[in-house]
Q: What sequence folds into this?
């Protein structure tokens, strides 16, 4: 899945590991691309998925709109009593999470294996 708007692009790659959906985000998560993440995530939840790992290794940038879309995902997960973990943030994205207080809201892991184990 790709969304292109205003010259910005974000790729969302989806794969299953057992009953866990691994979503890899690559590019920029901002006002131009956050709607595509929200739409893809909502569709996966509607299909009955409840466990998610968001791999943020390829995320170059996250804006306040991007943070809101991740918060919306977390709220949806809470409603369905699912589980959500974030993995492999680069330093810039981690700084944004730390400064915004989002590091305290989300379960964040260094590796995909740690996140999968934690939510299994």
A:
């Amino acid at each position: 899945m790709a969304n292109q708007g205003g010259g910005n692009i974000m790729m969302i790659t989806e794969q299953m590991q057992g009953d866990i959906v691994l979503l890899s985000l690559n590019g920029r998560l901002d006002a131009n691309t956050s709607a595509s993440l929200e739409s893809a995530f909502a569709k996966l939840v509607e299909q009955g998925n409840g466990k998610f790992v968001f791999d943020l290794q390829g995320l170059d940038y996250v804006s306040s709109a991007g943070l809101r879309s991740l918060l919306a995902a977390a709220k949806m997960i809470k409603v369905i009593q699912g589980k959500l973990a974030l993995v492999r943030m680069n330093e810039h994205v981690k700084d944004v999470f730390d400064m915004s207080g989002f590091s305290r809201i989300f379960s964040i892991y260094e590796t995909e294996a740690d996140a999968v184990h934690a939510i299994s």
Q: What stands out?
A: The chain has five helices and six strands. Residues 3 and 9 are 6 Å apart (CA to CA). The beta strands are 2-5, 8-17, 20-29, 51-62, 83-87, 107-109. Residues 64-79 form the longest helix (16 residues).
